[in-house]
Design goal:
three-stranded antiparallel sheet; 41% helix; 292 residues; Rossmann fold; binds S-adenosylmethionine; nine-stranded mixed sheet; alpha/beta
Length: 292
């Protein structure tokens, strides 16, 4: 079963995601697609469309997106947020027969469609023959090594580039330190490897290395760039949600230490609310370019 994510959480993290992703790899992807008059992107695990709203601005000409996700509520939120985002920029949005949404940007229209699919079956159900690049953001820590190998083989058959943003790489740092940090980190790390519906233990912080391995084995050139989340003390709501999320995940595995983790969560929530908690979550972006 697909792991579920709250729309409010994806909304809260969107500006931190946007600030963290490495522009150099987005530019390299767009440069790779230079010869395509209207590049077509397929975004896996698109959620509420945060990656499209960020990456689309690098394309600079008419282009299209297929958003793929299992969650119909997030898909609906993605289309609403695209329209709201376009309106905020003064771009007209049209949605003929509610099939493809068109955002009429001054540099060319963004065409956006959605497909509801369980990505566990991928590449089955994906329109790989009808796109020029496959993307994802904050997805690969959920998938298994076998799933990634299958995806790499399928993308290689179609000679498609793969851009994977915001892959956690481990060793989160909460400041100031707290004696419970190690207990929470241990439980959180165990939760990151929990099976998340992709046919094997989730990759968690092993995702960047696993992506690089799978695509290099398929003959791809792999580019990597850091994309850490930097949550300053002033971003109290984000710091609070992130700390409570860590505690909730840790509690699934560290039942005997529950009291320590609950005490840690209470202290961290109070620090966040007082504007005294900052957090760094290391991530990496990867761009895998097919052999010519
Ligand atoms: C951490 S969220 C990232 C969402 C979005 N890419 C972003 O960066 O905001 C992971 C996304 O993967 C989707 N997902 C997880 N498992 C899935 C599956 N088996 N099939 C399809 N989508 C899945 C979730 O619904 C969610 O939208």
């Amino acid at each position: 079963m697909a792991e579920s994510f709250a729309a409010d959480w994806l909304d809260l993290r969107e500006p931190f995601d946007a600030a963290a992703r490495a522009p150099s790899l987005a530019e390299a992807l767009v440069a790779h697609l230079d010869a395509k008059a209207r590049p077509r992107f397929l975004d896996l695990g698109a959620g509420s469309g945060s990656l499209t709203r960020w990456l689309g601005h690098f394309v600079g000409r008419a282009h299209s997106w297929v958003l793929a996700d299992a969650d119909p509520a997030l898909m609906a939120r993605a289309f609403d947020a695209m329209i709201e985002g376009a309106e905020a920029l003064g771009w007209p949005a049209t949605w003929p027969q509610k099939k493809a949404l068109l955002l009429h940007a001054p540099t060319g229209a963004w065409r956006i469609e959605g497909i509801l699919t369980d990505l566990a079956r991928a590449p089955e159900g994906l329109p790989l023959a009808a796109v020029d690049a496959v993307t994802c953001s904050a997805l690969c820590d959920l998938v298994s090594e076998a799933w990634l190998a299958r995806l790499a083989a399928a993308l290689a058959r179609h000679r498609l580039p793969f851009y994977a943003a915001l892959n956690v790489s481990g060793r989160e740092r909460f400041t100031p330190p707290h004696p419970g940090d190690a207990w929470v980190a241990r439980g959180f790390a165990r939760d990151q490897r929990r099976e998340k519906g992709f046919g094997g233990p989730a990759l968690g912080p092993a995702a960047p290395a696993a992506i690089a391995r799978a695509f290099a084995a398929a003959g791809y050139r792999v580019l990597r760039a850091p994309s850490d989340w930097i949550i300053p003390a002033a971003a109290g709501e984000m710091a609070r949600e992130l700390a409570l999320g860590h505690a909730e995940a840790a509690l699934r595995h560290e039942r005997r230490e529950a009291w320590r983790i609950e005490a840690w969560a209470a202290v961290r929530a109070a620090q966040a609310e007082a504007g005294r908690l900052s957090i760094r979550v290391p991530h990496q972006d990867l761009l895998c370019l097919p052999p010519i």
